[in-house]
Description:
The chain has helices at 37-40, 49-61, 72-85, 99-116, 137-142, 146-149, 179-194, 221-232, 284-293, 306-321, 324-343, 379-389, 416-435, and strands spanning 16-20, 23-26, 31-33, 90-96, 124-128, 160-162, 199-204, 235-239, 263-266, 278-283, 349-355, 358-363, 395-396, 405-408. With 438 residues, the chain is of the alpha/beta class. The chain folds into two domains: 16-47 and 323-435, Alpha-Beta Complex (Aspartate Aminotransferase, domain 1), CATH 3.90.1150.10; 50-321, Type I PLP-dependent aspartate aminotransferase-like (Major domain) (Aspartate Aminotransferase, domain 2). A hairpin with a 4-residue loop joins strand 2 and strand 3. The two termini are 36 Å apart.
Amino acid sequence: MTRASWNFLRGNNVSISRAEGACLFTEDGQEIIDAAGGAIVCNIGHGRARVADAVRQATLDFSYIVPPWVTPSRKSLIDVLDKRWLPESLTRAHFTSGGSESNESAIKLALHYQQAIGQPSRTKIIGRSISYHGTTMATAALSGHPKRKRGLEAALPRYCEVPSPYPLRCPLGSFHRDAGTYYANLLREEIESQGAETVAAFIAEPITGTSGGAIVPPEDYWLKIREICDDYGVVLILDEVMTGFGRTGKKFGYQHWPIEPDILVGGKGLAGGYAPLGGVFATEKIGEAIEQAGFQVMFTTFGAHPSACAAASEVLEIMYEEDLIDHAKTKGEYLINRLQDSLSQHPNLAEVRGKGLLAAVELVRDRETLEQFPEELAVTDKIIGRGLKEGVFFYGGGTGTIRDVVCFGPPFTVSESQLDRIVDTFVNSVNDVVDALP
Length: 438
Ligand SMILES: Cc1ncc(COP(=O)(O)O)c(C=O)c1O
């Protein structure tokens, strides 16, 4: 390659020629277990001929049809979502090409909705301090991810922010029993200090993805957040780009708690990595208000691309037929228990956490005080590099401020013996890297 790409960074390349199940194969024949499922995307595993056949057929039918028109694959995706996946309350769907675009659309839907119901002063969106919602200007700005905003801070739009629940590092004390109330009240206070009449929406991941490293909020957090959004007329947008479509052992991450969103955002697992596709799903109340106001929900050229919809329908059907959500649950328990057993006495372990096959390990210099390793030691990068040499790909989490969080998100079809290899390689990598630190 003579030309450098921002995507395929010079000097940092791993060159993959094929993949099968949970394994990648490099050009020179090395096998790498994909413990990250790509970027926590691949849920049904690589190399499914059925999905390839569906994409082939959709491509033969036509190359491209404008997003608002119906095609067989769009219709079948809507049918499968309707029949098996979405809650009854979310009757409206809008498809994009990925997570960032979907979150951008979700924010616009919330703003449109507030305008449509006669609340034009509600223009503020509240995000959280540890989060990732995408790479467009608005979604990057809304993300609590300093590392991904470096160099852009001055130009990014300003949004409001509340602290993300972080039970390990809760200011009341680690895993404090009032942590749920504490963090939920911070949202109430923020809405009141901004003035509820100015707040359109609150956006959050039900379980914080790789920015925090699979942080599961306190048990009562989401119920309280739902109540607060209802009390103040704030639209609740749940970003399930990472947690959606089975990843956490439920169809959607929010279903671990008795709540429902106003807008649900999906991406990654929707098409399992076989095609670029994102989805935004909203309640009838929101859809109808926007429709009656005559606002345009603009599509992107490649949103709902027919071949991507074909891939997604097949992926979602395979997940159903093979009971893969249950696999995510049981394999996730196996992975988290094995990590816990192997690391519980480790002097650098802060926490093993997660739900289903979205898991993470946070490492620290001092386990008692939770003092972090200095950023310049790049502990996570070193662990990932060491893992790759041993044939396992881990995913680096954290935001710069939050760091040394190594994430795991393999395909739901991963075997127990592959999980054993993932855990053993991880523990060896941590030991080698920590032992070699200055
Ligand atoms: C929770 C969450 N939201 C949004 C995004 C952005 O999605 P995409 O990279 O497909 O634009 C990501 C990507 O990692 C994510 O994890």
